[in-house]
Amino acid sequence: MLQLLWAQPAHLNVLWMAVEVKLFQAMQSIPETGATVEDIAGKCDKDVDPVIVGRMLRHLAAMHTVRETGPNTFANTPTSSAFAEQSYQDSILYIAENFQPVHNSMKSYFEQRDWKCPDSGLDAPFQHCYNCKGSHYFEYFEQNPEMGRRFASMMDSWSKGRPRWFYKDYYPVQERLIDGAEKDVPFLVDVGGGSGHDVEGLREAFKGQIPGPLVLQDRPEIVQLAKLGPGADTMAHDFLTEQPVKGARAYYLHSIIQDWNDQVNTDILKAIVPAMKKGYSKVLVNDFVVPSQGAHWAQTCLDWELMGSLGARHRTEEEHRKMYEGAGLKMTGIWRHPYSLDSLIEMELA
């Protein structure tokens, strides 16, 4: 109980303060055997009291974030070295400074709503916390670009090292998509694909094997940030409007379904259905499929955070299936990777 209620909250707070004084960057130049608190404090960005640095380092060592190699002496770990990277620094800042207030406001949010679960991205705990009811989570970022930048950076760190859906031991792209694909017809449309992380990864993994163009779709200000290689193009598109790319081999949605309620998701999918070619086109959803029993802690905590930020949730296989059937689609398979918590759901026209 002490670790849960005292040590872990203190750990997040110490991480936050460590980012503020650039403690982790300071530690990257110390010997592998470690350095004294005074030496480390002298390398920090601010004129921080060595006593404060020592108290930070002791708790970080107790939580296995740094190593204590001697009296008043500390050294790096792979974790502390990772925390020196910008994306991990941004992750700490976003959670501690920008999202922790959402957690703190949940009690009053639920009390005002008679403890009913949110089902709208316009009136979730995030909107209650930041007094922006009627403004979507991502719209709020447009007015608060630093918060949005931190969030995007955090998502980048989340994707590092994770198995990609097009890996051979994840989803069989060759057998399910490339085989039987028509030449010079759009091969894959990445709907709401951000700056092109998945499109470019797929292009690189199957260089010279993809028979048609790849299309990246998102809001205009997002797709203009994309840097794509030959054979991949960008298109500004609102996924709640009719899909303009007709007859593609696949329409891919990565972490889109989890961000919206069932009705909005049905609208997103119904906007794709008229563009599909029966017996040929597929919809691929790369998202969490939560087991009905024994869910992993990463799935359950992210489900809670989705509720707080977007009024959304992760779904079980049956919940996914029911939603897709309502949009005129049928599930034809679910693929999983042993080292990934998300899944690849394949669908065709019903």
UniProtKB/TrEMBL annotation:
Keyword terms: DNA-binding, Methyltransferase, S-adenosyl-L-methionine, Transferase
GO terms (BP aspect): methylation
Cross-referenced Pfam families: Dimerisation, Methyltransf_2
InterPro entries documented for this protein: COMT-like (IPR016461), COMT_C (IPR001077), COMT_dimerisation (IPR012967), SAM-dependent_MTases_sf (IPR029063), WH-like_DNA-bd_sf (IPR036388), WH_DNA-bd_sf (IPR036390)
UniProt key word Methyltransferase: yes
UniProt superkingdom: Eukaryota
Domain O-methyltransferase C-terminal: 183-329
Residues covered by the O-methyltransferase dimerisation domain: 13-85
Molecular function via GO: DNA binding; O-methyltransferase activity; protein dimerization activity
The protein, known as: Winged helix-turn-helix transcription repressor dna-binding
